[in-house]
Design a protein that fits this description.
Blueprint (H helix, E strand, L loop, with lengths): L1 H30 L18 E3 L7 E3 L6 E3 L11 E3 L8
Parallel strand pairs: 1-3, 2-4
């Protein structure tokens, strides 16, 4: 009797997993179909503006012409240093 219960539970588990297994198989197959691979000659879109990726350790002025300012990590303004943000600066990210 216990054996029949285990078989029923195993069958129910298998039926609940089948949709996910089919999806995983489809994704793997699509990854290997020619034409679905990413073109290695494609380059990411150019980032316009100014990239800020380090601490500000000297007096600095952000101007509208340098916008947007793309801050890519935590940036600290060192003690005794001034960061001036001019009017019109937009898109600080």
């Amino acid at each position: 009797m216990l054996r029949n219960v285990n078989r029923a539970q195993n069958r129910a588990l298998l039926h609940s997993l089948l949709p996910g297994l089919w999806l995983a198989l489809a994704v793997l197959l699509l990854a290997f179909i020619p034409g679905n691979a990413q073109d290695p000659t494609l380059q990411p879109a150019a980032v316009h503006g100014t990239t800020i990726d380090r601490n500000i350790d000297q007096n600095t002025t952000w101007t509208k012409s340098g916008s947007p300012y793309n801050v890519t990590r935590f940036v600290a303004v060192r003690p005794g240093v001034t960061l001036t943000v001019r009017p019109g600066v937009g898109g600080v990210r």
